[in-house]
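2024-03-11 09:14:02 INFO queue: dequeued item Pyroglutamyl-peptidase I, len=215
2024-03-11 09:14:02 INFO validating residues
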Amino acid sequence: IMASKKKIVVTGFEPFAEHAVNSSWVAVQELERLGLGEAVDLYVCEVPVEYQAVQSLLPSLWKEHQPQLVVHVGVSGLATTVTLEQCGHNKGYKRLDNCSFCPASQCCMETGPDCIKSILDMDTICKRVNDSHTGITVSVSKDAGRYLCDYTYYTSLYLGKGRAAFVHVPPLEKPYSGQDLGRGLKAVIQEMLNLLEGSCSEEEQRETEHRHDKP
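2024-03-11 09:14:37 INFO prediction written
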């Protein structure tokens, strides 16, 4: 039986503040050019740096594409490595977006938990990518910065029940080129898929075992 293709959505952000070219979108476009192989149906899109746009775009991405995984990529002027974010935060959104807006409540979801973790163990992914000598250094963070990156990540974790990931990339040439970032992103997402596949097959095994219990 042909396994159906895995549907993966990967997003980057539009330019904002001092980031006249947003390296996250450059990296995502490079990833699209490289592809994730025959078994993966990859959909990419550019996300506006606006809270309200994120609120309307993300539910439609999850609903329309029914992805197994959504990976958001954002730029961080502080990053010098490709940084895997483990969790998204609900509160603390005071910084104004590209429309000079911020949520009155300063949070994502009025009734949501303070923090939602990805079901993916970023430490494992980080170690595997660093051990594979791609020439790109990966690190892990637990603070996505309380701006649109964090806001988007939390929203996706909430909508996707943890089946989301966030990757911060440095600005271009600090130290990586767009091509480097695309390669790094591909390596990271492939490890994410390996990890997801591992946890899925464990669930399937358990289900199969249970079916045998029944007379």
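2024-03-11 09:14:37 INFO annotate: Strands lie at 6-13, 40-47, 69-75, 82-85, 87-89, 115-117, 138-141, 164-169.
2024-03-11 09:14:38 INFO item closed
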